[in-house]
């Protein structure tokens, strides 16, 4: 069964979720500004969660389900104990990361945010990414452009890799499975880019490309909630979001190449293919 | 000729430099807001400099020499123009980077700063680093601790790499001459750290170790002005700054390992040594 969503309904989804996300700002800052923010380790020593992740997710989930009882939720903390991977249906589905960049959050590095995306008929239609620590609220809904604190944002005009500021999640090198891939791809991208950065927050990195601050990003092995909100914002800002292979982006398996332009996406994909051909050495 | 500097003279150096740096804030902010304008290429296509770089350095240089005629200047822009290798004598010497993180500055990424260090008898004694876009003013003078916006800062207590969030300048992989070294060292460090970041400003990264937001940083092939001020801020915050080999830090050849604790510094140095043992493949 396919859902037909009118423009008016889409705007209601946007206004309600925007208000809820804003409402979580003070709670987010309370944890961020605390001299010492306690955390638990989840799946691995580098995978952290705080009480604020749980409280923010509960606030968002409760608020959204109350207003839109027909919708579904895919949230990071709700999924933390799930036995099966989340499934995306045609129903309006909120894809929520209550704190993206929790490792930054506990250390008070101001690259952390609340991220909310909405998919309907398996298409991403709405994204809100809010970083209270930098007073930045990015938002977008399908067909209506992307905004930072209410002002329109647009990607840069970078088309060549040697003009591009590239982002890469170098923290992922800590995971032994995927280590070789990540070191080699970083090597190829950083060798060609004018500069390379790693901020430790996927959702915000997509927003930085949307705002024209950065130009390209490649990441794999993350979760839908890491990418969903930012992907809509980037597209509405004129950017490109593809699967790493160059195929269509799939939010449920969000291995991706994100760029300011089509040409740049092609260059990044080619460099990744080049990296994957390196067989003379393996980083274990 | 060596001359002891009195406590009150040291305080005067600090106070005057602080006022001058603050005075440059509005100018830097003006340039930051203009973004992607009035730049030209120097040295390599990706090493950008702006008119603001020159203006800020002029204000600092003129102000410091007027207040302290006996002092000398080692500045980024002055060195670029004169093409002369800077030399450090026993004279009070200001080591200035008018904008550290020029690529970030141009892209409106809020990790860019004015950096001013003072060395006397070849020892660093004053450091001031000001990031107007993020409203962060880091300062220190020898024996008096380190401060962020007037509040004391201190490094974390992290002693092992497994607990550490480290920072690494992955942009350096772009330079063919140091590529292989940087790929291998990053691989070793990121494989063991709880997280790895790259912000694109050496001066600020030293400050983030000083505040405990990050725990360790390794970088080579930079200039004295990239590291001078941050090094004294970090040591006054309780951190360790040594040469990559583990020997005494030399600001004029500032290849360094910077860490929250001496134990962590040793950990990082061991990993760098391990990286140096990888000889069966070269990343060209």
UniProtKB/TrEMBL annotation, chain A:
Domain of life: Eukaryota
EC number: 3.1.3.25
Annotated SUPFAM superfamilies: Carbohydrate phosphatase
Binding site for Mg(2+): 76, 97, 99-100, 226
Biological process, per Gene Ontology: inositol biosynthetic process; inositol metabolic process; phosphatidylinositol phosphate biosynthetic process; signal transduction
GO molecular function list: inositol monophosphate 1-phosphatase activity; inositol monophosphate phosphatase activity; metal ion binding
Pfam families assigned to the protein according to its UniProt record, in alphabetical order: Inositol_P
Annotated catalysed reactions: a myo-inositol phosphate + H2O = myo-inositol + phosphate
Pathway: Polyol metabolism; myo-inositol biosynthesis; myo-inositol from D-glucose 6-phosphate: step 2/2
One cellular component term from this protein's GO annotations in UniProt: cytoplasm
Similarity comment: Belongs to the inositol monophosphatase superfamily.
Protein name per UniProt: Inositol-1-monophosphatase
Organism (species): Drosophila melanogaster (Fruit fly)
TrEMBL record, chain B:
GTP-binding among keywords: no
Cofactor dependence: Mg(2+)
Record pathway: Polyol metabolism; myo-inositol biosynthesis; myo-inositol from D-glucose 6-phosphate: step 2/2
Residues holding Mg(2+): 76, 97, 99-100, 226
EC number: 3.1.3.25
Keywords (A to Z) from UniProt: Hydrolase, Magnesium, Metal-binding
Gene3D superfamilies: 3.40.190.80, Fructose-1,6-Bisphosphatase, subunit A, domain 1 (3.30.540.10)
Gene Ontology annotations for the cellular component aspect, listed alphabetically: cytoplasm
GO BP term, example: signal transduction
Gene Ontology molecular functions: inositol monophosphate 1-phosphatase activity; inositol monophosphate phosphatase activity; metal ion binding
A family per Pfam: Inositol_P
Domain of life of the organism encoding this protein: Eukaryota
Reactions catalysed, as given in the entry: a myo-inositol phosphate + H2O = myo-inositol + phosphate
PANTHER family found in the cross-reference section: INOSITOL MONOPHOSPHATASE, INOSITOL-1-MONOPHOSPHATASE
Protein family: Belongs to the inositol monophosphatase superfamily.
Name of this protein: Inositol-1-monophosphatase
Organism, as annotated: Drosophila melanogaster (Fruit fly)
